[in-house]
Amino acid sequence: MNKHFNLNNFLTWEAVIILMGNTDVTTSNYYLYNPKGTDKFYFLLWDFNSTWGYDWTPSTIAGGYTPGQAYQGPHNLWANAFGRRFLSQPGGLELLNKAVLEIKENYLTPEKIAAFTTSYYNLAFPFISSEPDIGYLATNQLTSETMFAEYNAVYQGMINSVQMNYDCFLKVQHSPMPFYVEQPYISGSNIVLNWEASVDLQSDAVSYDIEIANSQ
User: Fold this and answer.
1) Is 57's pLDDT higher than 60?
2) Given pLDDT bands bounded at 50, 70 and 90, which one contains residue 133?
């Protein structure tokens, strides 16, 4: 970490992802920046199309999609090899908790979010509520009244989005990390099941339930 990365940069990158609810950043949608003449790499945020509750809240533009636990909190970073190795180290989760709280309390506050969203709303809404922009909104198949109601619901919900993501982060970090399940296969008269061992960041015991159905 100290030789090739910057701990503060890495923790800030992870904290912002968690608090903004970015569900599409596990193995892509970020830059690794290496300043010329140095051995350091820095994580740079990029692509925020799945943030601020856009894919979370029912009855919004996204159509009510709620991501599974694998896309929430530290679970969302587990598919990233670097993030997985960091969280697996003693004290890694504690450092992440401190970073998430610091960013939440000092930078992504409701007051600051409200100030930014209001300024952007007043600039953007006159354009998206008229042609040609209105024809390209994700919910343009709805009536204008319903479409604007959902647009406003997303706008108003952004103020509380960070707190919602923070509460989720505190809760799900006590659940086992996601694991890969291989395709079952038949060997003789047996069905063979294989899966990657799951990890609990608090080192609690992990058990598995197998449900067998006779139909898909």
Assistant:
1) no
2) confident
Q: Kindly give, in sequence order, each residue whose CB lies less than 8 Å from that of residue 184, ignoring residues fewer than 6 positions away.
A: 191, 192, 193, 194
pTM: 0.81
Q: Out of 57-61, 156-160, 179-183, give the one with best mean pLDDT.
A: 179-183
3-class DSSP string for the chain? CCCCECHHHHHHHHHHHHHHCCCCCCCCCEEEECCCCCCCEEEEECCCCCCCCCCCCCCCCCCCCCCCHHHCHHHHHCCCHHHHHHHHCCCHHHHHHHHHHHHHHHCCCHHHHHHHHHHHHHHHHHHHCCCCHHHHCCCCCCCHHHHHHHHHHHHHHHHHHHHHHHHHHHHHCCCCCCCCECCCEEECCEEECCECCCCCCCCCCCCCCCCCCCCC
Per-residue pLDDT, 58: 43
Q: Which of 9-18, 120-129, 187-196 has the lowest mean pLDDT?
A: 120-129
Q: Does residue 156 belong to any structural domain of this protein?
A: no
Q: Is residue 126 part of a domain?
A: no
Domain limits for position 45: 7-107+166-172
In a domain, 32, yes or no: yes
Residue 59 lies in a domain: yes
Give, in order, the Cα–Cα distances in Å from 6 to each of 33, 49, 73, 144: 11, 26, 21, 48
Q: Provide the number of structural domains found in the chain.
A: 1
The pLDDT score that the predictor gives to residue 63 is 45
